[in-house]
Amino acid sequence: MSSPSSSTTPPGQDLQGAADSETPVARTPRLRIHLKPAAEEAVRAGHPWVFDQSIQKQNRPGEPGELAALYDRKNRFLALGLFDPDSPLRVRVLHVGKPVPVQPDWWRQRLHLALQRRQGRFDSDTTGHRWIHGESDGWPGLVLDRYSDVLVLKLYTAAWLPWLDMIVSLIREALQPRSLVLRLSRNLQPLAHQRRGLSDGQVLYGPPVDRPVLFREHGLWFEADVCRGQKTGFFLDQRDNRQRVRALAAGRHMLNLFSFSGAFSVAAAAGGACAATDLDLSSPALEAARRHFALNASHPGVRACHHQTIQADAFEWLQQAHGAKFDLIVVDPPALARQAADVQNALRAYRQLVRASIHLLRPGGILVAASCTAHVRPETFFGLVREVAAQSGRRWKELGTTRQPDDHPASFPEAEYLKCIYLEVTGPVRRRGRAP
């Protein structure tokens, strides 16, 4: 990729024109899209997505990254968005209301607002967090994460590809990272390579990143494989839940199901857990967990905690673990419902995991159950966990629920993906016929 510059002009328009009242330099007329009534109302109410079946008509075919002007049924300007002809999510809305000039300063101000929302939220003890969270920060289909002095830009739509040089220039100007790494969603990778010669894990600016990046979270050290790891290299969104687990862990023997790189276990150890067991099917993930414990060996709690790893399928292991007992169990599986059709199977899986985990808890033990898919609504997930607990034959009380951290805001329902519930088992299994 050439050196970043703010002079990139997306196909079909210049940076100066956003409304029909302006005169774009482009030879083609502005892309105009009329929405069906239901989509019109949704956009007016603040929903940032327009799907292909929501389009009533458009004046011409569009190109990826074009600014599309959206109009209502009375032919009045409604909104402005990024067009993606290769996706069923056809337009990602940038602005609703009166027309605005989309100049470089407009984008600069939008970046500034996202950074300002996080001003003062993090200090030197936490150097891993999210700067931009997609639609909820006004950058639909784009996230920007920080790992110490390395930033990771992840794109989920080809609509951002023509704007990439400008985005890189603005990020460099505002945040001055040592390196900036590009990550691409799996479905976007072939298109990005074909059209722009871009690859997932490519360094857009700065020196090569040839090893995991070290960063801090509440004073603990972790590593992020920013070029090849899942998401942008680490699950930053569970930061607040890890801190809460840390506060609950003193003197407990912990089981971390779907442990991945063991971050929950390190947090528990720092909080005084006497033992922590990481269970995951992935051998590299468990190796990362062992490295995380080694990275934090100078912390007295981590050094004193007995850490072990088990490579196994969590569902199969739970069926055979009848004799095992723990004081703290974290159940944080990967997204079990990647589309709406998966929801019922996901709910059955959550039910199985929660039921088995509750029976492995000693009296006074705590269950931490999380779900990371937007297709399972928070009220549905919390209700399921409470129902399973009520059917378990054990006394229990709810300690609380959490959602996404404030650097992962959710401004519309589909953005509400992360939820977590804390239950304490207060007694043994009750015998039949005994009053609670």
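That was protein one. Protein two is written in the same sequence-then-structure order:
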Amino acid sequence: MQGHGREVILGVGGGIAAYKSCELLRRLQDHGFLVTVVPTPSSLNFVGTATWEALSGRSVTTEVFQDVHEVRHISLAKLANFIIIAPATADLIARIAQGRADDLLTNVILAASVPILVVPAMHPQMWNDPATTANVATLRSRGISVMEPEVGALTSGDTGQGRFPETANILSAFTEIASSDADLLGKRVLVTAGGTREAIDPIRYIGNNSSGKQGYAIARAALQRGADVTIIAANVALADIAGARTINVRSASEMLIKLREEFSQTDILAMTAAIADARPLQEADAKIKKSDYTKIDLIENPDLLADLASLKKDQIIIAFAAESSHDGAEAQRKLASKGADILYLNDISHGDIFNSETTYGEIFSAQGSVAKVAQTTKDTLAHQLLDQALLQLG
């Protein structure tokens, strides 16, 4: 399974321009990309592993036989959405053209089926050598994008075409091959996911069947579009999403505390979590014996959305309603009473919403528009909801 749409492998060749890729890494992160650096062994003569790990926040390996149990060349290839090789030396370009697999980076390139951008940097005579010219033509014939090096002063003291391109030019070329939609760049998206559990005693609780899949789909979609994402997860068994901050909670009260802490710094809130309407009036300190387990006195939980609506400034709130019968009038009423801007109504009468990979229903907006959603994946719905939120953000 590939990454979340914004996973970049930054391959670093063994040239003096390797230090310039530190700036490239930073700018990719500024654009919402998650970067894993795969340097060639010779490139470590210029920039060491510690630097790449500090800048990327991820472990760095250079050889196939490091961390063998992870099968790094395959796991990285599966994770990647894009590969940038910067700088690409004449030797590295030759090895890629020949299909060599003599270090981790060349193995990853062979194993990956993603857009690749090659950024050459070398002496002009090496760039213009017939062997390099032929190798570049080979790469381009295979669909790999190869930038033209820039003209300028070189380390050798010579001047000519072979200089590592400016970071802005690399990013421009990368945008063309990535076709990356970063329309949420600079925005903060807060997502609640899963279902709350209200303790009866240390063993039992009142809960629901929400899996958290729709919330995690929205978090992934927001990450793909460049957002800073935080998930408040209630009893979710799904793996954490790389690049998103996850806060784990158990009950509605715990979720409300965290929502209040995070909401003021949020641009878009997606309230996908299923919140228990009530909780036991008292939580027993010890397991209740079966003979004493005759009734449970309940007290209503706070209305989390209504609470947040009172704190709302310019935020866009996406609410969810799961109903066993389709009632558009009730959806509009909830939309208004909850102080939400968008509400997704899904019909659970056929029992295939919770823990399902698909969904269907209707999207209601505070402006009165209604959009029917035919059966589709939760990932697709996530993007549709974020599109609506962006329209309302202006």
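The mean pLDDT is 88. Keep this in mind for the problem set.
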